[in-house]
Amino acid sequence: MSVATARCRSAIAMAVLLPVTSAPILSSQPSPTAIVDRIRSTDGKPIDFHAAAFPESVYVGQQVTYQVAVLLSDQARSRLRRNPEFLPPELRGLLAYELGTPRRVPARSYGGGVAYEAHVFQRALFGVAAGTLKVPAPQLTYSLPQSSSYFSREERFVVRAESAQLVIRPLPEEGRPSDFTGAVGVLRASTRFDGADVRVGDPLVLTIRIEGTGNVKLLPRPALELSWASVVPGSERVQVDTTGALVRGAKEFDFILTPNQSGAVTLPVVRYAYFDPYRRAYANAESAPADVRVADGNLAAGAEAPESDALPLRTWQHRETRSVAEWAPLWRILGLVLLLLAPVPALVTLVARVRRQRAAQRPDVPRASAREEAIDDDSPAGMARRTRRTMLAELAFRLHVKATDLVTPADVERVLRRRGVTRATTRDVMLLLDELATQGFAGPSGTNQDRPLAHQRAEPLLAKVNGEAVTHGRARLWSRRARQSSALLPVLLVGLAMSGPLHTLHAAPLAVVDTTATCQSESAEASSGLAVLVEEGMAAYRAGRFTTAAQRMGTAVAICPRDADLLLNWGNAAWAASDTVSAVMAWQRAARLDPLAADAQERLALLPAGARGGFAEVPMVPVTALVIAGAVAWLVGWVLFLVAWRDPNGSGTVSLVATLLLAAALAAGGTAWWGHRALSSSGLAVVRRPETLRSAPGFDANTAGGLSTGDLVRMSSMQEGWFRIEHIDGRSGWVPASRLAPLVGGTATR
To answer: Mapping DSSP to helix (H, G, I), strand (E, B) and coil, where does residue 722 land?
Structure first.
């Protein structure tokens, strides 16, 4: 028996045995016994069963009251030996809460002439997505004895109630606030601190309480940003009250505040946007502002630091940094072709040298023993035996096997076929060997007529075997496939050369990776306007007007997105203006464009913990220099191999140097590839404001910790306006897309 069935059985039992008092009725919901007024006929059944939903059309997140009525006649009530079993309907796309306590309606007739006592049960349903949903018919099973005798057998009955259809409407677009995150109900907000003593650098817990009518479990975390303290999301607590006609409760959100300035500060009004389904309008739940006195501590920082404490600016040189992947496609293709063809001359020379050495090392025809020399005279039989031995020795040399592997005809045929010799050539070789064996052991009766014929047939056959045989039988198949696919080499080279743009296109759905962006100030007029923006920004920074400086430099970066000097200066201004998101974006981009710059690495060390470590670290790898050095070492190494292999005597020193150069080229290429991947900004994003990490896309999913403003995350997939992200500390989950700013191609506007 399921848990729901057990709960409903006990509830029905309580309703049958105990009277239930009425509860106050809210004007926004139906009467707790509204379903009874819908019943028109019972058909004289001893026990009847009905269900209905009120109302049948609601908004997403609005409560629907689902009522079930069990009608008991006096006869059935006196004969029941056990409680009926209730099988609730399967609810898909709906969240359900047991609502209030069962209600009892005194016995009365419903048009069939039989008086029934009604017991009404209620559930609160909440739709989580727009659409039309069907609530299947619930089922009630009961047993009645066939007579009044105690030993009478029981007869089992099953009755079904009506099914219900709900229309879940989407929330209206008209009047929707920009900060609305999906809260539905009638809500109010309040705040409180966990203590009265507040010091700079000491953590302080702020609790925002959202309470009211509605499904409070689905309420999203409110946004909170303070200029005088850092904000980190904390835990959440939920209290649900289902004793009334409407589900109500409260949800508390903790925020850990770390003040960074002393003096009198103010906790601003917290506005929490929600949709009121009963008024069909959007509203704001607002908390009261609070004055906070922050005492001096170990840390002290102002909103605007004096010039002497400000980070130094770089001298703007109007230069852009371009990686190897952004070189012109023609140069990439030519360079790749040159690197791939560099080993060809040296390998051709090596093959020719090996063939010459093998030809020089051809074994002599094995000498026959004294007895064989006596037997192998100039007779036709002796010539045939010598020819057969010479042919087998040549076959063993050319097929790279031992002479003992060619003892029997079956061995010879097997080795020939495994070395790639065709069937026709193998058949001719076997026929000639059989013929020579027959002549050699036929005695002195043979004639000299077959001697020139045997020599004439042996030499061409050995030449054919030498042309067809390969080192291994399978090598012939692969060599043929390689020749057939040689026409695809240009296509392969073009594909490898364009691998950078293809990778960019693959990552485009997650983040706009602007790998081909160039400075849009080519004309003199545009260049002059850019220079004015930079000068205004630098002047405002020196004057201590950091917000203005950040705005001017951010506009300049939008024109020249790959200028490391502009990016570093923009990050300095944003950091001084307490704009953590823009500072993280600017410094991360600057460090990835110029990884060897010491000042960029120093700026990264100033970022909060959520933007340091893991994939947020920027390795100091000179990718372009490594690619050039590796290409030069690769070319020089193969040239040295060509020189060494052309020398018949060889040169061990030159070969050793060439080997070391090739090893260095491979190491440089591997390091450059790793550095290119580590410095790539593809899929990285910055958290705009504090947010809770969810285990699934949706505000009703379980929480998996919190994210702070300025945290660097990696996006992996997107679903229904939610991104699945990975945090640098290893946590993963889902956050709304509006909470993320892509590291490249996005904006840091909060």
So the answer is: strand
In sequence order, which residues have a C-beta less than 8 Å from that of residue 66 and are 6 or more positions away? 51, 52, 53, 96, 122, 123, 124, 125, 135, 164
The residue whose two tokens read 């809500």 is 187
Phi, psi of 225 (to 5 degrees): -135, 130
Q: In what order do the strands lie in the sheet with 691-694?
A: 703-707, 691-694, 732-736, 722-727, 712-719, 684-687, 740-742
What pLDDT is attached to residue 504? 36
Report in angstroms the alpha-carbon separations of 258 from 140, 203, 224, 328, 613. Answer: 58, 5, 13, 50, 22
Rounded-to-integer distance, Cα 733 and Cα 702, Å: 10
Three-state SS sequence of 241-297: ECCCCCCEEEEEEEEEEEECCCEEEEECCCEEEEEECCCCEEEEEECCCEEEEEECC
Is residue 667 classed as helix, strand or coil in its secondary structure?
helix
pLDDT confidence of residue 527: 64
Residue 686 near residue 710, CB atoms below 8 Å: yes
Amino acid at 213: T
In the chain, the N- to C-terminal Cα span, in Å, equals 53
Residue 377 main-chain phi, psi, to 5 deg: -90, -160
Which parts of 471-595 fold into alpha helices (H)?
Answer: 473-484, 489-497, 499-506, 524-542, 546-559, 564-576, 580-593
Distances (CA, A) of 222 to 191, 208, 483: 12, 8, 66
| Residue ranges of the chain with per-residue pLDDT less than 50 | 1-26, 299-308, 328, 364-376, 446-448, 450-452, 473-517, 521, 747-750
Per the structure block, which two tokens stand in for 120?
Answer: 């009404």
pLDDT at 12: 37
pLDDT of residue 313: 83
Annotate 205-239 with DSSP letters as a single string: EEEEEEEEES-GGGPPPPP---SSEEEEEEEEEEE
Distance CA 736, CA 750 (A): 14
Neighbouring CB atoms inside 10 A of 35's CB total: 27
Q: Please tell me the distance from the alpha carbon of residue 465 to that of residue 632, in angstroms, as a whole number.
A: 43
Q: What is the DSSP letter of 408?
A: S
Question: Is-contact 197 297, C-beta < 8 A?
Answer: no
Q: Which long-range contacts (CB under 8 A, 24 or more apart) does 719-724 make?
A: 721/697, 722/694, 722/697, 722/698, 723/510, 723/685, 724/697
Tokens of 325: 């992947």
Q: What is the pLDDT of residues 102-148, one digit of tens each?
A: 888 888 888 767 888 889 999 999 998 888 998 998 988 888 887 77
pTM recorded for the entire structure:
0.52
Distance between CA 102 and CA 202 in Å, rounded? 51
Give the CA distances from residue 99 to residues 133, 167, 247, 546, 693, in Å, rounded to whole numbers and listed in that order: 20, 21, 8, 56, 31
